[in-house]
Design a protein that fits this description.
The protein has about 220 residues and is mainly alpha-helical. About 80% of the residues lie in helices and about 0% in strands. It contains 11 helices and no strands. Helix 2 crosses helix 5, helix 7 runs antiparallel to helix 8 and helix 10 crosses helix 11. The N and C termini lie close together (about 10 Å).
């Protein structure tokens, strides 16, 4: 069982992540340049809290907890922004690279498992290259924001293992396909309607991480 998975730690992490997301509400509305309901409904707060609880359940030491909790807050913000304006702002995505790798490097220093850090870096590069290729082939389907987020999620999933990189990536495309099908069948979208891909990427990574807890 992960060292930090005590119920109190999970609860406190959820509260802290939710509170941070709530405190950043005005900021994300400013950088998104939108007053969309997605940014006013508190969905980012609920998501940050929920994913933060999962982060505490997954983490095995304090540096891991910091890395995963920071990612939880960022993902909560990004889902809301992407649903609102179909963008993944650099101001949220890019800082996650140094934050995530600094925390994971600290974890490696604590545990002596430097292989996990190398795997995280390799997975980040692999998904960056993969998503960049897809965006180059079909720029209307994927944007550079998706490419940059892929690197962050790749580092996270690579830290867990290559199997989870594969699962998380495939799950993202499967989830997006299901969402697109539902929207088409309900006539809320057509073949030319843009669908935010960031939420599916994050949901796929979360699903893979959930599998890793039992693994």
């Amino acid at each position: 069982m992960p060292l930090t998975a005590a119920p109190l730690t999970i609860l406190l992490t959820a509260v802290v992540c939710g509170a941070l997301a709530a405190a950043l509400t005005g900021w994300i509305r400013t950088i998104a340049e939108s007053d969309s309901l997605w940014l006013r409904s508190g969905v980012h707060v609920a998501l940050a809290a929920a994913v933060g609880a999962g982060a505490a359940a997954l983490a095995e030491n304090v540096p891991e907890l910091v890395a995963f909790a920071a990612l939880a807050v960022a993902c909560g913000l990004l889902v809301a922004i992407d649903l609102a304006v179909h963008r993944l702002p650099d101001l949220v995505v890019v800082p996650m690279y140094p934050i995530l790798f600094a925390a994971l490097a600290t974890s490696s220093a604590v545990t002596g498992d430097w292989g996990a850090l190398g795997r995280a870096a390799a997975a980040a590069l692999a998904l960056l290259a993969f998503y960049f290729t897809l965006a180059f082939i079909n720029p209307s389907g994927l944007g550079l924001g998706d490419v940059k987020l892929a690197g962050v999620l790749g580092a996270f999933l690579g830290w867990l293992g290559w199997y989870y990189v594969l699962v998380g990536t495939l799950a993202a495309f499967a989830i997006n396909a299901v969402v697109a099908l539902i929207l088409l069948l309900s006539r809320r979208a057509d073949r030319h309607t843009g669908i935010a891909f960031g939420p599916a990427m994050i949901a796929g990574a979360a699903a893979a991480a959930w599998l890793s807890v039992g693994g």
